[in-house]
Amino acid sequence: MAALRGEIFGLIIMDWLLPERSGLLITRELRQKPGPNQNTPVIFITARAMKGDREKCLEAGANLYLSKPFEPNELLRIIGSVLRQK
Fold first, then answer.
1. Which residue of 35, 37, 66, 74 lies most exposed, with the fewest beta carbons within 10 A?
2. Tens of pLDDT along 12-33?
3. Distance of CA 17 to CAs 7, 50, 73, 86, Å?
């Protein structure tokens, strides 16, 4: 989270299962607290693909959700789509 407060990013790719904290919690904090990345697009890439997981990511503040496994071209397409919206 410290890196997200100190640097400005054009895009954040987040995973749900991180070593110290949930990507959901980090994304919620990012959206709630004023800072340079509060409105930076967030793409969730996660192995969690149960019913309701996509909605949880979007409710936390993610712009898009992609479940693993996925094709590299799919990720590139999504990144391009998000960056064009900026």
1. 74
2. 999 988 888 899 999 999 999 9
3. 22, 14, 23, 27
Half-sphere exposure in the Cβ direction for 21 (13 Å, CA): 10
For the chain, the domains span: 9-85
Could you confirm whether domain 9-85 is CATH 3.40.50.2300?
yes
Cβ within 8 Å of residue 60, ≥6 positions away:
24, 25, 27, 28, 31
Q: Give the lowest-confidence range in 23-27, 58-62, 66-70.
A: 66-70
> How far from 54 is each of 8, 50, 86, CA to CA, in Å?
26, 8, 22
62's CB contacts (< 8 A; 6+ apart) are 14, 27, 42, 43, 44
User: pTM score, two decimals?
Assistant: 0.86
Structural tokens at position 40: 């930076």
